[in-house]
Automatic annotation (TrEMBL):
Keyword rRNA-binding set for record: no
Domain GGDEF: start-end pairs: 128-280
Any GO molecular function: diguanylate cyclase activity
EC number: 2.7.7.65
Regions that span the bilayer: 90-107
One Pfam family in the UniProt entry: GGDEF
Top-rank EC class of the record's enzyme: transferase
Alphabetical list of InterPro entries matching this protein: GGDEF_dom (IPR000160), Nucleotide_cyclase (IPR029787), Rev_trsase/Diguanyl_cyclase (IPR043128)
Name under which the protein is recorded: Diguanylate cyclase
Protein source organism: Paenibacillus lacisoli
């Protein structure tokens, strides 16, 4: 399907160039009919443009109107002025519909490619398991991993804690720095979080670039998670005192919430996220 779309669009574009070349050569060959041919060429282009933005049906209707008008004009020249019917009279009867059909083919090819591109983007967003800005696992990965971790925690009685964090006053902060600095800030917080956990713990990007929220699945109990919280706040303090913070003239502060997994009250990963985010409200 994609190959046929490429062939249609590329073939139509090539045909359009060929038709334009033929039309321009034909228009310029006879100086006595130059103005007349320019008018017909513009009419052919106008119908082609209208077809591009509407449909083939509209283009064909306009071609019928053009053929009727052109036939009337030819009849006037033949009967009233006594001119003979030659190649000039048949050329635009063929070229104008040809422009319309080729333009429609080009339009169809482009639309099919756009639809396929949109479908690929939807499929990519559905299947993607990594955040494009931070290369962290996204919410889809979290759903899968959390299901496995929760089952392990329940079966082997291993404590499991979900910690969520975001940047305080993020909406106000975005107005103070550039888009490039926003992206770099998200990356810096991601790196800071990554270096604050053990290798068997997992870090996720649970939000979007507009409202970034990080999630950390920790194989520890709630008191053990406090150690990670203290480590995060210390690293954030060091980041604020670095050259980077002075360069942007902003200070970053984290809101952190954590909840330990309880199978009875949190049967699904979404329940775990909801309970963890509720804890953010108490970190002021």
């Amino acid at each position: 399907m994609r190959r046929s779309s490429y062939l249609m669009s590329d073939g139509a574009l090539l045909l359009l160039f060929i038709l334009c070349f033929i039309a321009v050569v034909f228009t310029a060959q006879d100086p006595n009919l130059y103005f007349q041919n320019i008018v017909f060429l513009n009419a052919a282009f106008l119908i082609a443009i209208i077809t591009y933005f509407t449909s083939l049906t509209t283009g064909l209707i306009l071609n019928i109107v053009f053929i009727f008008g052109y036939g009337t004009f030819t009849l006037y020249q033949t009967v009233v002025r006594g001119d003979s019917v030659g190649m000039q009279n048949y050329f635009w009867l063929i070229m104008t519909p040809a422009f319309t059909v080729v333009t429609w083919m080009l339009t169809q090819g482009i639309r099919q490619l756009q639809e396929q591109n949109n479908q690929l983007q939807r499929t990519n967003s559905t299947l993607a398991t990594m955040d494009e800005h931070t290369n962290l696992k996204n919410s889809r990965s979290f759903q899968k991993d959390a299901t496995v971790f929760m089952a392990l925690s329940k079966r082997y009685e291993i404590p499991l804690t979900l910690m969520v964090l975001n940047v305080k006053y993020w909406d106000e902060l975005k107005r103070m720095i550039s888009a490039e600095q926003v992206t770099e800030t998200i990356y810096q917080v991601s790196q800071l979080s990554q270096t604050s956990i053990r290798s068997n713990d997992s870090l996720y990007m649970l939000g979007t670039e507009d409202h970034p929220t990080w999630g950390l699945l920790l194989f520890t109990d709630r008191p053990g998670a406090n150690v990670v919280v203290d480590r995060l706040r210390l690293k954030m303090q060091e980041l604020n005192q670095s050259d980077r913070s002075r360069k942007y003239e902003v200070e970053l502060n984290l809101k952190i919430g954590a909840v330990q997994y309880e199978a009875e009250h949190m049967p699904t990963p979404m329940d775990l996220i909801v309970q963890a985010k509720k804890q953010l409200e108490y970190d002021v």
